[in-house]
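Troubleshooting: if your tokenizer reports a length mismatch, compare your output against this known-good record of 106 residues.
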Amino acid sequence: MIGGQGEDSCGKSGKGKDQYVEFVNESVASFLNNLNKDTKKIWLVEGADILADFLKAERVDEFIISVIPVLLGGGIPLFKQGIPEMNLKLTHMKQYGQIAQLYYEK
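Known-good structure output:
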């Protein structure tokens, strides 16, 4: 899992790792440079800032977006301004109670 806050950040407050998750706290560029070639999936957490860095590096090929039926008056945007328009293909959907999870590929 990669969480971040602020420009070019790959980490927030998590520490350590297990067989499924490793928290990192380094720049996106450094993380990608040190990434094991066998790594297939990276779960990005924390929203628009961290996602923007990976999109700029062209390292995102799948989006899993969860829709939760709660209307908010504000919040953190999912995507940052300045990200180029991208055509995505909906591959499938899952429902968990009232939550819809949408799976898209580039």
